[in-house]
Design brief:
two-stranded parallel sheet, alpha+beta, single chain, binds zinc ion, 4-stranded antiparallel β-sheet
Length: 318
């Protein structure tokens, strides 16, 4: 009997020990799990009053550095709406929020478009030097400029079969234009180049003559200031219909053809009529910009301007 009792006691102790350890492990695991959860962005975002769905949206679209930054701000429903927009750029977040606050917007994506192309700032206010390394994707607009002494390479004279006298342009551009002109001709249209590469000083003359005729505001709407013209890049052309006596390219069938087909040759209609707010220029049916085929079709497919393309696909990704 005594022997039996001796065996039973350690079993009992062992049994109690197992229960005891199990409780410790379970509660320890739970404690540890809570601890881990408190380290997550989901928990931290819930702590500053985002809902679970909102937190999940923020986590889906933002990286950890961006989320850390969100945690320093007060909860803002507009942030949740902004992050899931296609052309959202994180570094612009404060500017988007300011723009939304100051403007009566129908759609939050307007804030994204306008801020991405710097329209929350005045023209010529904080000029940015154009990046010459972007080549045919170089952006020159009312915020990005070329210096007075900038003269592009590979500028060649255009043969009189394609342009009025005195025109010269980047070699890639004229090669693409030759193909375009041949295709247009097959369709029955004669498209010629009116104006092409302009150096700083000739742009200065264009703008100043407009200014003396119409004043600064109108001159700015219809011509670029020296250094801010795409024509100085060597990648922009103004075209005309050779047989158009009215000198209104936008009303010709050549224009309809050009608008539909220029993308296949690497050109884009640079200042469309429904995008004046974005480009900062009045509608110019005659002005085309060479960006290469790949970019031209992307811009057409996404129905965006070159300014928007540059902000999102070039500046933002570099
Ligand atoms: Zn032009």
């Amino acid at each position: 009997m005594a022997k039996k009792r001796k065996i039973k006691k350690p079993i009992k102790i062992g049994f109690l020990l197992i229960i005891f350890l199990t409780v410790i492990v379970f509660s320890g695991t739970k404690f540890y799990k809570d601890y881990l959860y408190k380290q997550t962005y989901e928990y931290k975002l819930l702590e500053i009053n985002y809902t679970l769905d909102e937190s999940k949206t923020l986590i889906k679209f933002l990286n950890s550095q961006e989320l850390d930054n969100i945690l320093t701000k007060e909860k803002d429903n507009n942030i949740v709406k902004l992050v899931s927009e296609k052309y959202f750029i994180y570094k612009n977040i404060e500017r988007y929020l300011n723009y939304i606050e100051k403007n009566d917007l129908k759609n939050i994506s307007n804030a994204i478009v306008m801020v991405n192309v710097n329209r929350d700032r005045d023209y010529y206010e904080e000029p940015i030097k154009a990046n010459l390394e972007d080549k045919e994707l170089m952006l020159v607009n009312k915020y990005h400029y070329l210096e007075e002494n900038y003269e592009p390479d590979n500028i060649i004279k255009i043969s009189p079969s394609y342009a009025y006298e005195g025109n010269s342009i980047n070699e890639d551009v004229i090669n693409a234009f030759k193909e375009l002109a041949a295709e247009a001709k097959n369709a029955g249209y004669t498209i010629v180049i009116n104006s092409s590469y302009r150096d700083y000083n000739s742009q200065k003359e264009v703008w100043e003559s407009r200014k003396s005729l119409y004043g600064t505001r109108k001159a700015d709407a219809y011509a670029a200031r020296a250094g801010y013209s795409e024509h100085q890049t060597g990648y922009a052309i103004d075209v005309a219909d050779f047989y158009d006596e009215n000198d209104k390219f936008g009303e010709t069938e050549s224009f309809t053809w050009m608008k539909e087909n220029c993308y296949n040759f690497g050109f884009i209609l640079r200042y469309p009529d429904d995008k004046e707010d974005v480009t900062g220029y009045s509608y110019e049916p005659w002005h085309y910009r060479y960006v290469g085929r790949k970019t031209a079709s992307k811009i057409k497919n996404e129905n965006i301007t070159f300014d928007e393309y540059y902000a999102f696909y070039i500046e933002n990704k570099s």
